[in-house]
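Pipeline run #58 for the internal structure catalog. This entry was flagged by the ingest filter as a single-chain record with no existing model, so it goes straight to prediction. Upstream metadata was stripped on purpose; only the residue string is passed forward. Reviewer on rotation: M.T. Logging verbosity set to normal.
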Amino acid sequence: EALGRIVLQACAHQAEERYVTATAMKQALMQIVNDAVAEQCRINQTVAITDVEEDGKIDTSNISDIPVAAHDDISRTVSVFSPIDNQAEQNASRLGQTESILGESPVMDKRIMRDTVRPFHPIHIDQKVDLSKSATVAPYSDERDKPKQLLIKRFFIFSAVLTCMILVLVLVFAKIINDQKVPDSVESTSTSGRQSSSVTNTQTTTQNIPIPNQAAQGIGNYAGNIINDGYALTYNDTLYYINMNNNGYIYRYNPSDNTNIPVFSANARVLNIVSDWIFYRNNDDWTLNRVTTDGRYNERIVQDLIDMLIVVDHKVYYTTLSNMPGIYVVNNDGTERSCLCNDRAYFMNIYDGWIYYANDNDDQKLYRMRLDGSEISPLNHEKSRFINVYEGWIYYQSPSNNSSIFRIRIDGTERKLVSGDMTDFLNIYEDYIYYRNDSDNGCLYRINLNGGEKKKIYNGPVTYISLAGEWIYFKTHYDGKQLYRIKIDGSDYQLFE
């Protein structure tokens, strides 16, 4: 039994990846048997191996004490290879090979069919073998390939799952990057009015003019621009304007490369910009909408028919023209809409926590109320148009007084005449009042806040005056399809496209 285990352990130690013939394997095994018997005899000091025949058989003439069981185990081990020899001969016969398998030399480069022999290395007699570890040798079978096949299947399944996970992560990462382009100061909750821009990226060049920020912090646009339909404003050193030469679409002008770039294809008016959102009135259906400054996301905020709008921080205040007129407030994502009052209001301004407006329910007299709709009260007793609240004063045009310019304190006191000209389209910007002077054929004029330093800016009729940076933007007719501009000093008059 001990010799049988030694033989099996030696075979297991040497059987790795090479193919040999059954005869060569048997010869090597017989050599191992002879050496193992000799070693056992030397250990027991009872047996002396006197001779080993050249044909590989054990000479047992001088062996007297080897147990019979050991001989039986060795014989059974060697006999395992007999069926392999028979199978090898049959396979060689079928393939028409000319040489006999049993006659082949144990050359390792010679390979035979895999079902004939098992993977094995030739056994070197002088090689030291660690026989202290037990090992078993399983007969060759196709079952040996199943673990490899299972491993390959698991590898492909793992690769597919890993690929899907990577793809999902890439898509999620791309969406995160994409979403970062949308202003995260507000969240969009309405999708019914979402559109995509269809403006082609045609670009026109204009003169390179540095543009300072125009919109006051937290306010979407200057009051003077808003009451003139808000055709232009600056935001983050970029000019945004309504291109009347292209259906009233929203454009932006980049002074760094002198290009006019389309933002969104909507017939827009009353531009306000806060937190990377452009709020505007769609002049086709008179609804309140907003679009990101890059033009990628657009949505309708409310369905009301609106006239004016002012964005203050995250609130939008607007007036309506519907059968239910009033001043309303809504979050800039369209939620929590509420009515502040039912007055039909015009020329709305917001200043220092108060809303100022001309109340059409009371002959367009000047009124004010708190931002929450409380403390509504009149401030004068005359019709007031083109209201501009500026540094503690309210400037307005008085149609009942030759459309002259007056001013009063924000509490309604100290009424004063500023200019006796017949005026229209008032706009206060950086300590000057710009207006259409109907006393001089509707030409563009400016005066200081006290009525002095009167100067003609443009010798021609103007309407809807907006100011941004060093430029004055205006139309030349009430229904004009062109937007012009001129510097505040009266130079560089040009068509702005």
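catalog note: The mean pLDDT is 77.
catalog note: Helices lie at 2-14, 22-44, 68-79, 81-95, 146-180, 223-226.
status: ready for reviewer M.T.
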